[in-house]
Amino acid sequence: MPIPKRVGIVGYGHLGQFLEAAISKREDLEVAFIWNRSPGALSHLDQRLVCHDLTDFASFSPDLVVEVAHPDVSKQYGALFLKEADYLVGSPTALADAELEASLRTVAQSGTRGLYLPAGALWGSMDLRKMADLGTLQGLKITMKKHPSSFKLKSPLKELNDGVSGSAVTLYDGPVRGLCPLAPNNVNTMAAAAVAAHNLGFDGVNGCLISDPALTDRHIVLVEAEGKGGFRVCTERVNPAAVGAVTGNATYNSFLSSVVAAGAMGPGVHLC
Ligand SMILES: NC(=O)c1ccc[n+]([C@@H]2O[C@H](COP(=O)([O-])OP(=O)(O)OC[C@H]3O[C@@H](n4cnc5c(N)ncnc54)[C@H](O)[C@@H]3O)[C@@H](O)[C@H]2O)c1
């Protein structure tokens, strides 16, 4: 039997709890540690797995650290994680900070460990990456449509969304870089797209966020890619999701697949 990959989980909210439960059912993965900002939430766990201080994470010997807490974690600990383990950034909106993206890329490309970004709800990430590598990707727009209660937004988008009733409203339409700080929990898929489409990046990939009261049971993600000579691909992903859910059901399983895949590709920046 192969040796299980030891996974450190940083954050114990919806996604962290889902991962802990899913990992415990698998033979190819095991929990190395769990950290949470409020340690009280971890009191029911085997205390040998609880990391109280993230600067001490390496003592748990993780092969992979998975951030499922907040974009700020990468700013504070991303480079530290990458020195000792592969690092899967669950909140890739953090990379809209150009300085942070550059510094994590440098550490990932010069060391022995890889920086991994989950494809999340992004369909066709590998195709976008291939086109970006060849420089043939000329345009990319990601449109995300959700029920107003599924958004966790910052001002001024928050106020705009609070006023939505009846018909759908476009909250934002422009470069993904400007949207990430305003909707850090909702547009991880767009951030993953900006990393996959690296020839366009956060300034060149367009993000459109639509608040639609009619979407009571699903999230919708449209990917529109354009290439040379009239090449065009458009996909629509319809993901069942309860009213108020920030993350659609299928995205949890997609995230678990990313945890399984992360770590196999060596140094550098990878989508998985
Ligand atoms: N890439 C993807 O496909 C994808 C999917 C779902 C969620 N996410 C991201 O993963 C993260 C967790 O999602 P969730 O649904 O579990 O959220 P959640 O709100 O259920 O849990 C977040 C956890 O992190 C903690 N936390 C909040 N702010 C923090 C901070 N500044 N520093 C440290 N800890 C903090 C909270 O206490 C909580 O335990 C979010 O950033 C979310 O945007 C990504």
TrEMBL record:
One of its GO terms (biological process) is NAD+ biosynthetic process. Coiled coil: none annotated. Residues 169-251 form the Aspartate dehydrogenase domain. Residues 11-118 form the Aspartate/homoserine dehydrogenase NAD-binding domain. InterPro entries: Asp/hSer_DH_NAD-bd, Asp_DH, NAD(P)-bd_dom_sf. One of its GO terms (molecular function) is NADP binding. Belongs to the L-aspartate dehydrogenase family. This is Aspartate dehydrogenase domain-containing protein. It comes from Hirondellea gigas. The lineage of its organism: Eukaryota, Metazoa, Ecdysozoa, Arthropoda, Crustacea.
